[in-house]
Input
Amino acid sequence: MFYLDSYLLALALLLTLGILTWAVSLWRRDVSIVDSLWSLMFLVAACSYLFLATERSPRGLLITLLVAIWAIRLSAYITWRNWGGGEDYRYRAIRHNNEPNFEVKSLYIVFGLQAILAWIISLPLLAAITGENPIGALDLLGVSLWVVGMAFEAGGDLQLARFRSNTQNKGRVLDRGLWKYTRHPNYFGDFCIWWGFYLIALSAGGWWSVISPLLMSVLLLKVSGVALLEKAIDERRPEYADYVNRTNAFFPGPPKTLRPQD
Output
């Protein structure tokens, strides 16, 4: 059964949260605070689904817990990373390209859009929380994939934070640890986490929520993730090209051995 009332409530909550954060961004003149909000939107959606569920099943409690751990950690990390740094360069570019009246436009270009995307992507959470099938092998597989994803995402963030904290590494490229096997371990981790959520939803009977991990995969690979970040890095750090040539972009794999040029 598709719980339309729960789904529409989540939309209302996410849009309200987006509007409130937009108001804060006007005061701070910094729309990049939306990055700290992004993961928390899914926690709000999950909690609203759980609150209206006719029965709080073990699967529903489990996936809400997994979402909470992922969302709070990611939001806290992004907030810490961006603290005191001003508006992120990506959003400065968006601001420049949408003047005049970006303050008004940002309500739907940035905050409204992210609320809608989070609402659509939250479908596996709705399916898992409202599903009535017993817990099975797919749930265990989904949790296992979530664990792998958290290891890559949180581990990659930790390694990058330590690398940047050393002033001797300024201008250098991190190519150790998880970053030795993929140029974006945090994005790959996010990819695993959302496919893990989908496997849990699939076990509950929510096959139709496959649009969520597919959309998240497109965002990570082609829109706001790998493609956007690498374009910016290439423009600012030409030495990054060597790292690109020997390291997988997304899916982890052994480093490539480069042949010496004649």
Q: What stands out?
A: The chain has two domains: 1-132, 134-253.
